[in-house]
Amino acid sequence: MFYLNRKEARLVVLQRIELISNFIKKIRKLFGRYIFSNFISKYFLDTKVIGQAYYNDMNEEFKEIEKYINSKNQNFLSIGSGLGGLELIIDKKIDVSSFSFIEKNYVSKKVKYGWDISNKEAYNDLNIQKKFLIKNGMDSSKLNIFDYDKDKLPSNKFDIIISLYSLDYHYDFNIYSKYLKKISHNKTKIIFDTIRFNYFQNVFDKVVVMSERTKNIHSSKRIICSKFLD
Ligand SMILES: C[S@@+](CC[C@H](N)C(=O)[O-])C[C@H]1O[C@@H](n2cnc3c(N)ncnc32)[C@H](O)[C@@H]1O
């Protein structure tokens, strides 16, 4: 399991809303999203239960993508990783050269979970994320966290780029497409959940559907893509 303090648990439930129990879900419906994200998520979460549920969820995600990513010494980039539980598991199970994260450094007042046209929804705190990763065993020398709004983004090439329930699920792929072209080589694998699989057949040379979901916020396919077409 992951050991979470209250602040970390709060971020995790905002990032992975399915982790909250049915009871809390009912309260969220009753009191509304503002009260949920500003009060209930701050004070009424069971950190042990959430630490275990978060670990289980990330372990399942790992098992799904493992066979696509398990070569040695690769550079990973995660876009919208949340706290980075998946990357902690990858780090324990695969020999990784480096992890870079691009995330946002604030929590929206009213968490909406939909298609965010203005690219303003965010639920993270980069200091908390860094502490969480190091506390759970990631070596700080192979870890870099970039603030999407403030930092110059990394310009080296990455072998694996992962963005679960984030890029093209909550915000438009095209926000990143030019940048992704720059930092990928012909064998870079880009994994993300999308609501418009067909579109990417004209963007990449190779697009494979890894899995499909119909029950979450909206129906989506998890795809793995490589080689931009132009
Ligand atoms: C629904 S959460 C998914 C978190 C994690 N990937 C997971 O599967 O548990 C989406 C994440 O994307 C982040 N985010 C929002 N806009 C972003 C952007 N433009 N670039 C990078 N991250 C962003 C949010 O702060 C949030 O942590």
How is the secondary structure organized here?
Elements: H1 6-15, H2 22-31, H3 33-43, H4 47-69, E1 74-79, H5 85-93, E2 96-103, H6 126-135, E3 143-147, E4 158-163, H7 177-182, E5 184-194, E6 204-213, E7 220-228
Parallel strand pairs: 1-2, 1-4, 2-3, 4-5
Antiparallel strand pairs: 5-7, 6-7
The structure holds S-adenosylmethionine (SAM).
Question: Would you summarize the structure shown here?
Answer:
The protein is α/β, with parallel strands linked by helices. It has seven helices and seven strands; from the N terminus they run H-H-H-H-E-H-E-H-E-E-H-E-E-E.
* Rg of Cα set: 17 Å
Question: Mean pLDDT across all residues, rounded?
Answer: 90
Q: Can you tell me the CATH superfamily? A: Vaccinia Virus protein VP39
Instruction: Order the strands across the largest sheet as they lie in space.
Output: 3-2-1-4-5-7-6
Counting DSSP E segments of at least 2 residues, the number of strands comes to 7
Which topology does CATH recognise? Rossmann fold
Number of domains: 1
Structural class: alpha/beta
Instruction: Please report which band the strand proportion falls in: under 5%, 5-15%, 15-25%, 25-35%, 35-45% or over 45%.
Output: 15-25%
**Unreliably modeled segments:** none
CATH architecture: 3-Layer(aba) Sandwich
**Helix and strand sequence:** HHHHEHEHEEHEEE
Taking the alpha carbons of the first and last residues, their distance comes to 43 Å
Give the class-level CATH name: Alpha Beta
**Major β-sheet annotation:** 7 strands, mixed
Into which percent range does the helicity of residues fall? 25-40%
Bound molecules: S-adenosylmethionine
Shape: globular
